[in-house]
Prior knowledge:
49% of the residues lie in helices and 15% in strands. Helix 2 (15-27) crosses helix 3 (33-40), helix 3 packs across helix 4 (44-57) and helix 5 (96-109) crosses helix 6. A hairpin with an 8-residue loop joins strand 6 (196-200) and strand 7 (209-213). It is of the alpha+beta class and 216 residues long. The chain is built from 9 helices and 7 strands, in the order ααβααββαααββααββ. The strands form 2 sheets. Strands 4-5-7-6 form a 4-stranded antiparallel sheet. Strands 1-3-2 form a 3-stranded antiparallel sheet.
Amino acid sequence: MAEQVWQSVSALADPVRRALFDHVRRQHRPVTREEAADACGVSRNLAAFHLDKLAETGLLRTAYEAPADRPRGRGRTPKVYSAGEDLEVAIPPRRYELIASVLAAAVARRPSHAGDAAREEAYARGRAHSTPVNGLTEAARVLDDLGFEPELEPGDPDRLILRNCPFHALAAEQTELVCGLNHAYVEGVVSGDPDLAARLAPRPDACCVEICRRQS
């Protein structure tokens, strides 16, 4: 396992390879070499080389199938790539140490009201990353840097979905506690813009929190 993790980390050191990997993982469906190449602005041959290297490490899976939106024609069925194993190399990004730090600070500060103290601490940690009023675009940039992988809700330019939960494993075990702290943390992150709100909106394929514009 250690050797596999090292190979995975090494495979992502190249910026082109990392860009291709991130594109494939965020599509939530198989991706062809041509599509990955176009998305990352590289040639098909270079994309194929890097995608196959990622597949060799287990970070991507491969198959041969025609795209769902394109009828099967003559010739070889195209090779497609999809996300592989979720190895212990922070892919997607995880931030379990943040939750541990928040809880430790809360217990030390107000042991008899640790729950309230933890939410206050999480909000303060998020607020440290907040920026002046800049709307969803700036919020998305900051949240992406923090590992939440934000993207606009399809068909709704006023709603930002967070595709990755940096606290995934803990949230599965202690949903109410961790999602509450996550919500407070993201509230802090977007607190610099009074037109934005963070709200709990659990869904199976994303973080439990989403960002939306406040209704006027």
